[in-house]
Records
---
Amino acid sequence: MTTMLKSNLIGSANLSPHGFEEPKFLDRRARADNRGPDRACRGTTAWNRWGSLTLRPIESMMADLFLQHLERLDDASRLSRFGMVADDAFLRTHTERAIGERCLSIGCFEGGDLRGVAELHDLGPGRWQILELALSVEPPFQSQGIGKALARRAVTTARELDAGEIHTCFNVANHRMKAIAQGLPMTLDYDWPFVTGTQVLRRTRG
C-alpha cells in the first residue's frame, strides 16, 4: 500500500496512532486482542506474527534507514508511491527531501528496521499550513493496518502543527489507500487516473 505525492508526479517513543505516549503500546495491544496499533484493524493477527512494532518520528540521522526502506519497495509499490518505477538515484534524492526542513516523516519500526513511512510535505504558502500526505509500506507488511495507523498519526501531527488542510494523491486502482483516506475521513475528488483526498483541519486560524 503506497501513495504518491502529487508534487512528485512529472520524538522517540512508542506512540499510538492517536498521538499519545503509551509504552509498549503496539506489543501489548497485539498480545491482548491481535489488533495491532489501531483498534480499527479488526481481526488481524499479523502484528503478533511480525513481533513488536513502534511508531515514532524519523530523524535526520535515520537517512540510511529511510533509503533502505524505499529500496525494499517492489516495482508495483514504487509505481504507486512515485507514479513511476523509481530508480535508486531517484530514491536517494527523495530521501534527502523527506528528511529535510519542509517534511515531517513518521516511521513504523520493527526493531532497527523501518517498515512503513508517513510523510507530511509542507506545500506552503504559510509554514505547515497545507500539507500533503504520502504513505509507503513494504510489501510483506501490507494489509496489516500499518498504513492506517501511520495515516492517523500523521493527521494528529498535522493538527499539532495547527495545519489548515491535509491532502493526498493516489491512483484510482489503489483501493487500500482509498479506504484509508475515507476513514480519516477525507473528501475524495476523482481526476482519472488519480484521486485527490482532502481533509480540512480548521476553517480559520486560531
---
Amino acid sequence: MMAGEYCDIADDLICGKDFKCSSFVRIEKDVVIGDNVTIESFVVVRSGARIGDNVALEEHAVIYSDSTIGSGTKIGIYTKVGKKVVMGENCRFTAFCEIRDNCKLGNNVSMGSRGTLSANTVVEDDVIMKYAFVVTDVPVVGQEEIKSVGTLKKGSRFGANVTIMPGVTVGENSEIGACSQVRYDVPINEVWYGNPAKFFKKREL
C-alpha cells in the first residue's frame, strides 16, 4: 500500500496489490479494497464498504457504510454513494453525482455530472444517464414519508436534464430525449420526449 500524508486508515484494512492512496484520505474499519485501486485526496470510505479491483475514487468522493463498488468502476469528484448501495462492474460517474441509500446498479452503468438516484432506485445493466438526470421519489411534496421509485431497465438511455417521476419504470432499450419529464411507465424499445414526455416512435434495434 502506498499512502500519502495525513491519512486516517483503520488498522484492519484489507487491501490488494498496487493500492494507491493520496493525502487526507479517511478509511474506516472493516473495509476491503481490491487490486490496483486508486483513491485520490479527501476521499472518505465508511465502515463495511467493499471496493473491487481496478476502481478509481476521485477527489472528495464519499462511499458510505456497507456499500459495494464493482471492479473497473470510476467514482468521480465530489460523488456521494449512500449506505448499502450495490454497484456493478465498469460503472462511470462523472462528478457531483449522488447515489442514495440502498440503490442497486448493474454493470456498465454511466451517469453524467450532477445526477441523482433517489434511495432504493434499481438501475439494470448498460444504462446511460447524461448530466443533470434525476430519479425522484416523493409523489406529493410535503409528504416525505411516502416514497416510490421505479426501475431503469437494461439498455435504457436518457438525455441531459431528464426527470423521472416517482414510481415510473422505463423499459428495456427505450430512450428518453433531453429535458423530458417522464410521468408514466415507458414500454420496451420506444423513444419518448417532452414535458410531459410522450411516445415519439419505436426504436429499431
---
Amino acid sequence: MVHGFCIYKSSLQLTPEEVDKLQEMINQKSIGIANPMKIINAYSDWATGKAVKDKVTIIYDTMHYSTQKMAHEVAEGIMAEGYDVEMYFLHEDERSEIVKSILTSKAVAFGIPTINDLPFPSMGDIIYYLKGLHFNRTGFVRPAVTFGSMGGRGGAPEFIANELNDCGFNVIDQQEIYYVPDSENDLNSYKLGQKLVEEAKKLNL
C-alpha cells in the first residue's frame, strides 16, 4: 500500500553516500524491512518518472451504469492507441491501489456522474487524497480527462477537472452526456481515450 509519499522530487534523488547512510539507519533501527533498497529505489523511481509505463489509469463511479459504459469506451480508445489500461471502480477498489497505479501511468481519466448538481460523493474521497500527495512533484505533469453522465444541470466533469488541475494534473478535455450514452456518445468517449494517449505520447520520458 502507498501512504503519505508526498513527493519532493529533489529530496528523493539521493547521492550514493546518502543511500548508504539511509540503509544503515534502517538496519540499525531493526524495523523488520528485509530489503530497504527496494523501497528506496521505488520512491526514487516514482519521483523521477522512471516507473511510468505506456499505461492509463481510469477511475470512475457510476449510479445507473451510464458513466461506467463511458469508462469502457474510453478504455477501448486508449487500447486502440497501444496503451494499457488499469480501471478502478470506486465502490470496490481501495484508494492506495489507485494511487500506486497512477504512479506508474502516463495519464489518467476520471469518470464522474452528477448528483444534486455536484460530483458523486465518492469522487471527493480520492480527489482530496490526491491533493495531499502533490503529483506535480513527480517530475512531470500527467495529462487527464474527465467524463460523466448527468440527468439535470450536470457540471461534475468540469468541477473535478478544476480539482485535478489543483492536484498537479493537466486536464486536456471533458465530456458530459445526458442519461444513457447512445452510439454517438460511445464514439466520442472512444475518441476521448485516443486523444488522451496522443497527449501522453508527447511526454518526454
---
Amino acid sequence: MTKQDNTIGGVEFFSEDYPELILAIDKSIQAKKSCFILTPTTEILGDSLKDADMMDVLKKGDIRVPDSITLIWLARLLRKPIKKRITGIDALIRLGQATHRRYKVFFLGSTAEILSLAVKSANVRLPAFDVVGSHDGYFTRDETNAVVDAINDSKAEILFVGMGFPKQEMFIHHHLKALKVPVKITVGGSFAVISGTLKRAPLWM
C-alpha cells in the first residue's frame, strides 16, 4: 500500500484525529519511549522555512499536528489527506478529561502566578491529570539543568511546555536526551487559557 503524502513545505503532519493522537501518547507512555509532539501553525511553518535550525527541530519531532485552520485549508488546496486541525490546548484538555486512565503531568511555562492558577484549575477541571510538578518559563540558562532535574525527579509521564515559539520547541530539542519524560508536547499559551486569564482564540483561526 502506498504511503499517503502528508507533507506541507517539506514537513510531515499528523493526519488523524484526537483519539489516534491520544492512542499514540498512551503507547509511548506504556513503552517508556520518547515522543516529541510539536504543534506548528502556518506562521511557525513559514518561519521555519526561512530558518534551517528551526526546520531541523520541526523535522526531528516525532509528531507534528496542524495547529491552525489555515494549514487545513492549505492541505485541502494541495490535496493532502490531513483530516482536521489539532490544537495543543485541545489535546491538553482531552487528555485531562480522559476516562480510561490518569496521567502524571508536569507544566512548564508562563509566569509563576498564571501557572499556579493553571494548576489549581487543572486539579478541578482536568480529573485525569495528576500534576506532579510545575515551573514557570522565566528561568536563566544557569538554572536550566535544575529545571530539567525537577522534571525528571517528578516522574511525570507527559511534559507540557508552554513558553511560546520558538523557545518551547528549542527547550525540548536541546534537552531531548536529558529529559526522561516519555511524552513532550508544545502547548503555547495554554496555561493562560486554562487558568482563566486569557480567552482562547476563535476556532476558525
